[in-house]
# Entry
Amino acid sequence: MSKTRIETGTEAEFFARGKRLARQADRGEPLAETHIVTFDDPAEVAQLLTQARIGLFRTIKAEPASITTIAARLHRDRSAVKRDVDALLAAGLVSVETAVNPGHGTHKVVRAVASRVDLHVLID
# Structure
């Protein structure tokens, strides 16, 4: 697993980072396995990283499972967990994969995409 960084930043900072990475790649330098999610407004970070979603992420990171299994572990309603998984999926913090059941059928497994998430927020 790689590392995910959640931060606030401007559009100019986003494109400057992209240029730095492109120059590194052009020089043949290895690129760090870091996924960066950037928000313009710290309030958007707060909307994404609620206490419930942080607990959900930790549970998924500890042991990937289906939404139903995760909801049972957390003693939460399955539909609420599904909404939170969808938000974490949209932010790139989790992935949902289809797994084959032994003998018959399939099920979806939710996994953390990073072993570590760093949060960097600047409030002006």
In short: The first strand starts at residue 2 and ends at 8. Helices lie at 11-26, 42-48, 51-62, 67-74, 78-90. DSSP finds five helices and five strands in the chain.
